[in-house]
Give the backbone structure.
Amino acid sequence: MARILTGDFDRLDPMDFENCDYLVVGAGIVGLAVARELNRRFPAARIIILEKEPDVAFHSSGRNSGVLHAGFYYTVDSLKARFTREGNAAMRQYCRDNHLRINECGKVVVARSEEELPALFELERRGKANGADVRLVDERELSEIEPNARTFKHALYSPATATVDPVEVARCLRNELLQKGVKIHFGETYQKRISGNRVLTSRRGISAKHLINAAGLYADRIGKDFGYSSHYTIIPFKGIYLKYMNPDKPVRTNIYPVPNLKNPFLGVHYTVTVDGTIKIGPTAIPAFWRENYARMENFSAGELAEIVAREVQLFVTNSFGFRDLAFEEMRKYDKDHFVELATQLVKTIDKQGFREWSRPGIRAQLLDTRSLELVMDFVVEGDRESTHILNAVSPAFTCSFPFAKMVADRIPQV
């Protein structure tokens, strides 16, 4: 039984610490995938995963749409471009190997006007450059793929896009790791670094030869404990989906609008989940504290002060169009407006069928405090003693397996 540590933590006897080779902070999809990769490479290593919640995937990993992206949104020189296509294939294979559900629904990106066609063509160019299976289709071909989708002249078709159940995948990884001897401390919170790689949790001290920070919404804070993330901070954005509850199935394919390529949000779109549920969303509403899911849930006065001050700065400067984004996203609390955005993508749908909100999710979006710009790609910092995954935003779920290999390549055998 782990005991609660009290007193002068900086003077704890080394015998009071639980020792391990690798300590992974965070049991979301990235933390689990990194632990799996380390176990694969170093099967004799002692690995501990520290997770403050009672199970895996309680936050972003378990609240995302479950879409396996194909890799056409991202510039060729980005890590996202490098990993999405490979990650899509790896996650599909993992689901097949472990008899997990997968919906091979595909995806179309539709244009609402002639002004959106250049961005649509740019997505095709990026997709081809990234090796993704994408192609432009005309309105006739689109009607064969998704009869209810509406577009202006052209659409982009991605047959490799699919959906899975992210919680099901994460729990399968959890079980695999436990069977291979990896320890997971659930309900245990990282509190602070004491010295070196000796850290204090809410239940014990842990001494690791190498620490991997995969803490999502709190990755920047832990990074700062180790001297990293010096010019980064997390800005949380709340994402909510609205489910279609009528018995009919008016959409069979994921339908997306042409996004604004200057920011990482993809706009309100249709997702067909692994069980065939149709939902629209998500929002990208600026949140006021890191786990600001609903009302005063997980309220933190310190986080409120810090994040609101930063958001006021972004609002005043309108950096990366934050002011415009905030106004537009806040309008999505109006259900009629939210649904209207989705109806622009289809020929016909019963607006009254959208009746049930999904669980909110929070996107842990990294902000560069020097430029006041959102960081669009993955960010990993560290040294021989610790590795800090500071920005693992969408499509981190799709990219998780090859991304974990890249992270493991940076970590020495201890």
Q: What stands out?
A: Confidence is low (pLDDT under 50) at residues 1-7. The chain has eleven helices and 23 strands.
